[in-house]
């Protein structure tokens, strides 16, 4: 995922302001973004054990000051109210594969893209990780997805349009 983001120029110095890692688990994606120069990362997961592991990782890497951690359902949008408008550069959504393998939970995950549009910068990138073979349809106000399969995983890249006349 990060090699692809690098090739897209998303990881260029000064490009990553706010990163969001949804369904973060112990935070590997957000921690990688911080290690690649992100200013800060918002981590969201409902699992208390995962959040404890994330907090341990943040402490061990001295990154606590660069993180906001929310223990809540990523689909609830409660965490989203704390994010300033047009501040997110990169969103990584990594739900359990079971959520992407069935149409109803997959649609619930995809519904997150609508409220995220107001919180993302023009040109921001959103990456959804799914199980292989999931069809992820285009969404209003986002370009894409460009989908790539790696082994049992699918990566779906969306981008917020640069055109300022777009809603958001």
Short description:
The chain is of the alpha/beta class.
Textual characterization of the structure:
This protein has a single domain, classed as Vaccinia Virus protein VP39 (Rossmann fold, 3-Layer(aba) Sandwich). It is an alpha/beta fold and 168 residues long. It has a seven-stranded mixed β-sheet. The protein contains six helices and seven strands. Helix 2 links the parallel strand 1 and strand 2.
**Largest beta sheet: strand ordering:** 3-2-1-4-5-7-6
Largest sheet: 7 strands, mixed
H/I helix tally: 6
Poorly predicted sequence stretches spanning 5 or more consecutive residues: none
Report the average pLDDT across residues: 92
- Helix and strand composition category: alpha/beta
What is the subunit arrangement here?
A: single chain
Instruction: Give the domain tally.
Output: 1
How far the N terminus sits from the C terminus, by CA atoms, comes to: 26 Å
List keywords for this structure.
alpha/beta, Rossmann fold, 7 strands, 168 residues, globular
Helices and strands in order:
Elements: H1 2-7, E1 18-22, H2 28-35, E2 40-45, H3 48-60, E3 67-71, E4 88-93, H4 97-101, H5 103-110, H6 113-116, E5 120-131, E6 143-150, E7 153-159
Parallel strand pairs: 1-2, 1-4, 2-3, 4-5
Antiparallel strand pairs: 5-7, 6-7
């Amino acid at each position: 995922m990060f090699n692809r983001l690098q090739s897209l120029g998303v990881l260029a110095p000064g490009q990553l302001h706010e990163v969001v890692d949804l369904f973060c688990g112990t935070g590997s994606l957000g921690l990688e973004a911080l290690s690649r120069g992100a200013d800060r990362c918002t981590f969201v997961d409902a699992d208390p054990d995962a959040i404890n592991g994330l907090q341990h990782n943040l402490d061990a890497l001295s990154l606590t000051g660069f993180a906001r951690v929310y223990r809540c359902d990523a689909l609830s949008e409660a965490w989203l109210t704390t994010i300033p408008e047009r501040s997110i550069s990169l969103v990584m959504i990594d739900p359990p594969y079971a959520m992407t393998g069935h149409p109803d939970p997959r649609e619930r995950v995809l519904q997150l893209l609508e409220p995220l549009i107001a919180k993302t910068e023009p040109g921001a990138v959103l990456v959804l990780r799914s199980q292989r073979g999931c069809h992820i349809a285009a969404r209003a106000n986002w370009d894409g997805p460009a989908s790539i399969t790696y082994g049992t995983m699918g990566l779906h890249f969306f981008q917020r349009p640069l055109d300022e006349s777009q809603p958001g």
